[in-house]
Task: structure prediction
Amino acid sequence: MKASNTLWKEHLAGKMPEDLGREVEIFDNEVALRKQGKMDERLFAETRLRRGVYGQRYDNGQRHDGAKVQEMKYPSGALTKGPSTMWDAPGMQRIKIPGGGLNAEQLETLAELAEEYSDGIAHVTTRQDFQLHYVHIEDTPTVMRRLAAAKITTREACGNSVRNVTACPYAGVCRDEVFDVTPYSRALSKFLLGHPDCQSFGRKFKPAFSGCAQHACGLTSLHDIGFIAVTRNENGIEKRGFDVYVGGGLGAVPYMAKRFDAFVPVEEALPLTQAVARVFARLGEKKNRSRARIKFLVQDLGIEKFKELVLEERKTLTPDTRWTQLISDAEKNVESPLREGGELALGGSEAYQRWLKSNTRPQRQAGYVVVTVALPLGDITANQLRSLADVVRRFTKETVRTTVEQNFVIRWVSQKDLPELYEALSAAHLADPGAGTIVDVVTCPGTDTCKLGISSSRGVAAELRKRLAERNFQSDEAVESLHIKISGCFNSCGQHHVGDLGFYGVSRKVGGYAVPHFQVVLGGEWENNAGSYGLPVVAIPSKNIPKVVTRLTGRYVEGRNKGESFKDFIKRIGKVELKNMLDDLVRPPAGDRSFFSDWGDPREYTLDDMGTGECAGEVVATVEFDLGAAEREVFEAQLAFENGQIELAGRTAYGAMLHGAKALVKLVDPTIAEDADQIVSEFRKFYFDTQKFYDPFAGGKFAQYLFDAHQKAGNPCTSDSSRYLIDEAQLFIDAAHSCYNKLGTTATV
Amino acid sequence: MDFQHVNVKFLVKNPEAVDLALLIPVFHRWIQGQVCEELLLDIADYSHVPEGPGILLIGHQADYSVDNRNGRLGVRYNRKAPFDGTNQDRLKQAACSALKALQRLEREAALGGKISFNAHDVELFINDRMLAPNREDTRRAFEPDFKALFDKLFRGTEYSLSYDTDPRRLLWLSARSSKTFSIAELISNLSS
Result:
């Protein structure tokens, strides 16, 4: 849409790395072909996604404006950029930043693009990427060209490809790391980019690197492949390697990665990943998208069989000099300081001291610290990006990285420069304290811009951030260090499973109206590379979430034992007590209509832009009651699981799904019997085959959970399978609520 | 030399009294009524970002916002789609659109008169570094266009112009009239 797009093409010709320039050229041609109607919309959608060009909310050309559904009359009319995705509808551009590593020029490029093509904001994601929102499809080739000229690519930032390779942002300067994983993560990123063995996956593939096992920075447990730095002594020589994990992933049902090998020599990291990729491409699910991640393949085969297949595959690989060459090349880029290290001067204002405490961390190199720039909701303005570029040039050799907590870290800052650096950051409003604390809430875009969002994760996150900053938990470090992670839906982009306090968006019908809710997820662990996943406890109306946080943190302050972590406290208190604590928050207060809209959005909340009236009033009460009962069963399954009653937990979770299905079947067949086969059969007939139970984006995935569980009903449960069943049951009940909402009368006033 | 993608921002009086959150329902109503010439699409809330874009009303051809970039709160019009005509036409179109939006906000009962023009200050940006890099030669080349706009807008009243000369930034200038103006007067000046 920019008048200068052609001029940029001419201006940047020959100024981009050849491979990146060629990639953009191909995409530019595809944009032109699609615009002329000479390229199929599905094919175009896949090609743009593989270049990080996403759709955004309302890009189907319809938007509920609070009173009615508006049809957006775009100038390009019915032209689409994918199925049900209007050409002119603004979209999102994701930008890959391997390991989060940037330089000042790249920060300035991002600033320019945010201003000229987006809304003035660059958003840091939970995968160390950037996202620009409200970008027109016809501007994306120019955005890519300008990025390529700064040696940044958007290639494979989305689609069924290898996503951004993440790495601990403290790698190389961390006091606790085994060794610096930076060169290996960079080498792997380069190696896999566009690799022919990675072009036919059924789903995305996410690698991560961590320098140690105990901290959270790499989050290897929740990755498709995770590398943790380890060493071992071989004949008196210390040898570097990785403790490798595969098959982790969040998504609707989170899977903890399984150990592949406790020691893989560093020079084997690339070929091993290639072999894993080839096995995934060959054997991974392709048709059923909801079971296409590698975690399902690892689960279905078992880690031993999977390992066997990968090692067999490894033997067949043609040796590639890049396996080691890329690492050697990356090792040459060693970071060093700009200024001499020094002692930290005493004194300074109270604000400076607060910032010093929460936003700086000593490096293992004496005299230097890492400074965290905490961004509100991961957002940074173009002016701030330029100021940050100035700061990193002035104080360091441009050693700056993004983090999975949606912040920046500036590395190699001399301690003696801290007062001056603080002033420089303050002038740019980049010196907010509280990095990595309870105030530093992590959130996905949610209903603001994401097509999948159910509740406003950014809205509630902004509200929590404001309230928590006012409360100031400095006096209680145990509370201050808690992590809040929020996702707008079950897909976990906000990593809610690994927060101390996690929330994900769901909807519930209350008094005939759709009300935005969040499931409260407790028991997750951020440390130990995302050491454990939390489970949903109860769904609470969105407007009551700040009260949930106040109550839970208050109870923790009052009732914790000495040195007790929040996770252990939650475990000790137990889910029954926790649920009781929140019981009065489950329903919106009578007559308070503010609960029918979401944070930061005054429109009456709707799950869907259009509803069809089918239900009679008296049936409504029954189905709501039945779904409530099914949800309680999921909770009972959780309790059984926590008590070690694995078999009972699995059976109860399955029972909850059956009862949820029955609640819906009763709407069309009130005489349905308590017979599992009949319930499943009728559910399939009335809701699955008719696609009434379909999620707009997940399709029939949640119904499939019931069918799978029913098919395996007689099989014994393992700890893993029981745990998965509980998550699946909760998602099935959430989907049943959504389905019921859609069946009901239009959910607006 | 032609430029496109003109941004015009009229600064508001008493910025500290403005509650950005109140703009969200107002902009939603604007979308409901499609009250502007552009196709209005969505709202982006960046009120949590200091000196940021504030609250944006995202449109197809242009965005409107109550914008706090550079720590100067104002009503901003950001023309995204190319606009036919001369540079003067483009400047006038953007200024008119920003003024009409500001006038509408001044009249919004829900805002209680908290948003009103400070009567003096206008900012102008060219949101395209290729067409208008922030360099001395570009500023010199475009200054007659800019002056023609402000001569008309301020109707011959004296005004001062100042540029931001950081080459990394958008071409940006600020105009301050020596006399006070109401929005209606400025709209009338541009139309005459």
Notes: Chain B touches chain A at residues 4-5, 21, 24-25, 28, 31-32, 34, 39, 41-42, 44-53, 56, 58, 60, 63, 69-70, 80-82, 127-131, 168-170 (CB under 8 Å). The two ends of chain B are 26 Å apart (CA to CA). Chain B is about 30% helix and 30% strand.
